[in-house]
């Protein structure tokens, strides 16, 4: 921040939210914080988390505080970049974050570990910018995963096709954009080049309103994009390999940065794994055309496999729905169901019941087949 503690105190007397307004502080947050203010605590937004401590921007400027009071067993409730917190006033050593304000949105995924725990990546985000490099072949399935998590978080997704200058043919670029638009119904798809400036003005206008998080695989160009939006080389950029577009992680922590044109940006490390975490609603949003077709199926619990009167499989046979989309939809729903079943006994019982039903149907079909052979 560019002001001193004394300047902050003076400005706050005139307008309680003025100093933190650039970081997203508004009347809603102020009302939520009122009871903490009565206890003498200060509001602050988490800009970085590191081993039991975090950096926060407060009315005093940038401070460091201990998170021992808000370290729950649930990994989805730990302090995260983007959180709004109630912090102890000056005097304590160390100073502590006493509590977090309820999150408006939260971007979470399943970790890549075998324990399949949830991991919170960013909090109180308005725009989830899914960054996809055009230096390598598009992975539409991966884009669908990011979109499902983004919709589930409560943020508005945006797909940025970075390094657009590497596709010099306008027709070819147009086809790539169309492919992603088909994969991302209801989502803006924007080709961007930090080298030529293509799409940067439009993206800057989007991120100027609220908090945005940059998401994507390592080498997708997030750090370069962040530097372009910031107008200076804040994030370290390393070259990506020509063979697969991947590079070493240039961002190792999640950082909250103030944008010169307004808005706040959270840059994240490249994600190797994009596991779903209780994202059934998000999956439905990504595959909204399939959910729409399913409304016309004969059976309300149609699995869209071999049931008679299935409007979804009929659309595939007619060439209206790409088979890849249906296969991806099934895959993500199964994966999400397995994740939820780990902590929900009711879901586990439903899965077991479904397995038994399918097993009985399979045995009946075999018996009928043997009868015909005889």
Could you explain the architecture of this structure?
This protein is an alpha/beta fold and 374 residues long. The protein folds into 3 domains: 5-100, OB fold (Dihydrolipoamide Acetyltransferase, E2P) (Beta Barrel); 120-267, P-loop containing nucleotide triphosphate hydrolases (Rossmann fold, 3-Layer(aba) Sandwich); 280-373, Probable gtpase engc, domain 3 (Ribonucleotide Reductase Protein R1, domain 1, Orthogonal Bundle). Helices cover 36% and strands 19% of the residues. The protein has helices at 5-14, 27-37, 140-153, 170-183, 200-207, 222-230, 280-286, 288-294, 311-317, 323-341, 345-373; strands at residues 42-50, 53-58, 61-66, 84-87, 97-100, 106-110, 118-123, 127-133, 156-162, 188-191, 211-215, 255-258, 264-267. The strands form 3 sheets. A 6-stranded mixed sheet has the order 10-9-8-11-13-12, sandwiched between helices. Strands 3-2-1-4-5 form a 5-stranded antiparallel sheet. A hairpin with a 2-residue loop joins strand 2 (53-58) and strand 3. Helix 3 crosses helix 7, helix 7 packs across helix 8 and helix 10 (323-341) crosses helix 11. It is globular and about 85 Å long. The termini are far apart. The relative contact order is 0.10.
């Amino acid at each position: 921040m560019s002001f001193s503690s004394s300047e902050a105190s003076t400005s706050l007397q005139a307008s309680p939210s003025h100093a933190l307004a650039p970081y997203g502080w508004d009347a809603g947050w102020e009302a939520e914080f009122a009871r903490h203010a009565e206890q003498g605590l200060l509001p602050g937004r988490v800009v970085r988390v590191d081993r039991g401590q975090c950096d926060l921007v407060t009315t005093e400027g940038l401070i460091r505080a201990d998170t021992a009071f808000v370290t729950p067993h649930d990994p989805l409730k730990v302090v995260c970049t983007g959180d709004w917190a109630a912090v102890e006033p000056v005097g304590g050593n160390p100073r502590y974050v006493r509590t977090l304000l309820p999150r408006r949105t939260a971007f979470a995924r399943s970790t890549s570990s075998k324990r399949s725990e949830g991991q919170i990546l960013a909090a109180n985000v308005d725009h989830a910018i899914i960054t996809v490099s055009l230096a390598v072949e598009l992975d539409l399935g991966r884009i669908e995963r990011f979109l499902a998590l983004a919709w589930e978080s409560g943020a508005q997704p945006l797909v940025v096709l970075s390094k657009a200058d590497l596709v010099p043919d306008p027709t070819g670029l147009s086809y790539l954009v169309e492919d992603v638009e088909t994969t991302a119904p209801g989502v803006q798809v924007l080709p961007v080049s930090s080298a030529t400036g293509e799409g940067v003005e439009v993206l800057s206008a989007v991120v100027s309103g609220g908090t945005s998080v940059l998401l994507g695989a390592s080498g997708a160009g997030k750090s370069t994009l962040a530097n372009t939006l910031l107008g200076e080389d804040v994030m370290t950029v390393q070259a990506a390999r020509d063979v697969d577009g991947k590079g070493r992680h240039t961002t190792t922590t999640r950082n909250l940065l103030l944008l010169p044109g307004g808005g706040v940006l959270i840059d994240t490390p490249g994600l190797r794994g994009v596991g779903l975490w209780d994202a059934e609603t998000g999956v439905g949003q990504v595959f909204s055309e399939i959910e729409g077709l399913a409304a016309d199926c004969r059976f309300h619990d149609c699995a869209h496999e071999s049931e008679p009167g299935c409007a979804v499989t009929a659309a595939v046979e007619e060439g209206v729905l790409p088979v890849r989309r249906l296969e991806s939809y099934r895959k993500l729903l199964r994966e999400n169901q397995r994740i939820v079943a780990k902590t929900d006994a009711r879901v586990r019982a439903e899965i077991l019941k479904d397995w038994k039903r399918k097993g009985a149907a399979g045995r009946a079909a075999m018996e009928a087949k043997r009868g015909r052979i005889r």
